Amino acid sequence: MVSSFATELLEIKSKEPSLHVLVIPGNPGIAAFYKDFVEALYENLGGQASVTAVGHISHSQKDSEHGRLFSMHEQIDHKVDFIEQELQHSERSIVLVNFHLQFTATSLHSSCSMLTGNQVGHSIGAYIGLEVFKRLQNKIKMFVGLYPFLKLNKNSVTQSAIGYIARSSLLSKGVSLLASFIGSLQPSIIRGIVRRFLGTSWSVTAVDVACCHLLKYHTMRNVLFMAMTEFQKLTEEPDWMFVRAKEDKIAFLFGVDDHWGPLSHLEEISKRAPGVTLSVETEGHTHGYCCNEPGSFWVADYVANFIKTQKRH
User: Fold this and answer.
1) Considering the entire predicted model, what is its pTM?
2) What is the DSSP letter of 2?
3) Which of 42, 96, 271, 283 is the most buried (most CB within 10 A)?
4) What transmembrane ranges does the database entry give (predicted)?
């Protein structure tokens, strides 16, 4: 429980950690999607860092909050509360790693005390991570945004379509009912639908996670409600003053053809905050890299190398 809300964690804990890597998912914010990534990152850091993926409230198999809808701002508060509650006795740095996946994890090991850390975020998780970084600057050592979604892309048809659905309560309920209906079918039929329409290249793990967690009425309603609040907030410019102030502690990884984080956004960051570490992944992985093993392994290697480089400075 974090601030009285049921919270799903996927974590591997080091016996003698030198830092703690906190992974913040995008939307959907289902921690189990990052299983392969979390395991690979732990191994690439030589077992010297604890790694924890923190799921969003009500983006889970069980409707613990009885249909309540949570905004992006409330999900940001939830991640701040997690760090303050679970890592309050921390003496080592936190690395934030953040993600985004637009369309119950269990503990693998188990002592979250005595750590500062690094933050990693994917897609909208990158925006969430920056907000967490701003609030907890004394606890966060570095921040990595993966395939970041930091502002709206007016040229994206997909974003326009999702925004249109998310703004309509009627359409959101309809899509959520459809997802719930699909989730009630025979397991083999559900898997076939998920693989056909969501993830032709997804791993077995990712397909199972979608079947068990995503195809729930309460989950899809929260995914769309959070998307609505994301799109409202991301009409604003990022806090460039903060990014410049912390540019030596921030890195972003972009994809070549990613409408959530187009290369034009990378170019803008390079002009606004030239000290930020910017990279472009050219191996052919997608925005939803965490849903297949090759993507998870490649991105985990990138994050681990950045963390190791920063630790030497």
Assistant:
1) 0.91
2) B
3) 96
4) none
